[in-house]
Amino acid sequence: MPFNHHYFFPVDIEEIIKSSKNGIVLFSFGSQVDISVIPEDLKLNIFNAFSKFPEIEFLIKYTQNQSETYDIVNNYRNIHPFDWMDQTSILSHPKLLAFITHGGRNSLAEAISAGVPTISIPLFADQHYNSAIFNYRKIGIAMELQELSEDKIVKALKTVINDKE
């Protein structure tokens, strides 16, 4: 059952959520891992895939000192980087369409609790196992980091956004 609480967001995040035409997607690798670990070409594949959904707003967590990521993201109208977001509030928001995560135990538990379709991109440790379970149980899609192409990301997003099972 989804969390039942009020949504309190910083003004900038709240405005993005309110103004989103067809919803939002959260992209976060949790509090311990930053998207800087993703090679530049794969980051571009991800961001280019996001741009194929112009009516959806993508909230991404990044560390402020990752200025190169911030500079790249500024080239995309529907991608919004933040160094901190209240993940549980966003996951339980009715406008959230999907969650892209590293597959950490806490993030996946929060996604399950909120009933959010998930795309998991495991990086290390238990994340591969957690992602495989999500894939097996059909409550998410697991993708390998090295195999992230723009087309595969678009296909995965379409699947989790449109599949109402």
UniProtKB/TrEMBL annotation:
Record-listed E.C. numbers: 2.4.1.17
Catalytic activity: glucuronate acceptor + UDP-alpha-D-glucuronate = acceptor beta-D-glucuronoside + UDP + H(+)
Membrane topology of the entry: Single-pass membrane protein
Record keyword Transferase present: yes
This protein's UniProt keywords: Glycosyltransferase, Transferase
Family membership: Belongs to the UDP-glycosyltransferase family.
Entry protein name: UDP-glucuronosyltransferase
Protein source organism: Panagrolaimus davidi
Taxonomic lineage of the native organism: Eukaryota, Metazoa, Ecdysozoa, Nematoda, Chromadorea
